[in-house]
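Quick illustration, no need to memorize.
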Amino acid sequence: MGPSRALVCVPTYNERDNVEALVRALGEVIDTTRDGVLVIDDGSPDGTGEIADRLAAELSWLDVLHRSRKEGIGKAYLAGFEQALETGAQLVLEMDCDFSHDPQDVPRLIAMCEEGGADLALGSRWVAGGGTENWGLVRRVISRGGSLYARVVLGVGIRDLTGGFKCFRRTVLETIDLDAIAARGYGFQIEGTYRALRAGFRVVEIPIVFVDRRVGESKMSGAIVLEAMRQVPVLRWRALRGNL
């Protein structure tokens, strides 16, 4: 049975050291009688998918979506969103598997959509009360600079456009053209939020502290950063021409 309220989508690739701990942590903060978790595994060679399957056999509120290969976080989320809508979830969340996003913040995102009037709630590092831990200066400059660049080019007020900890009302995902989202990497986060804003939805940022992953390797790369930088002016141009 699918969730009647919220589904948390968690993409994974080589996260065997994190996936069980994260799933169990989420089980402690969501209402498992009406919420669920969906692990979207992109064919992890380290056995992440098998661990998720074992957990799903034990936990009725957990499901696993297996994809044959790694195609980028954007493609993984789109597949997860499609399944979430099919199962009837009214709220759809996205978060990382590596504990960069604190599971304790999930109820805050849900509450912002359920009670706070947001159509899209964003966990934001760059609003008052938010921040990062265990980041070097270069990474902070790249992240804050990237968000500033996107904000200026797109002409929006959202301060953390590159963040990937979100809660959507299902009507947002049903309204924006998910099939048209081109970005595969972290530009996906910018494009999804921008499309929601252009469609007139209310986007609210709530402060979070982003903590660098505990174990495993970061999926961030120079190619992902460059893709996002190239995608931003394209989005703005398409919006100005009415083609978004």
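The first helix runs from residue 19 to 27.
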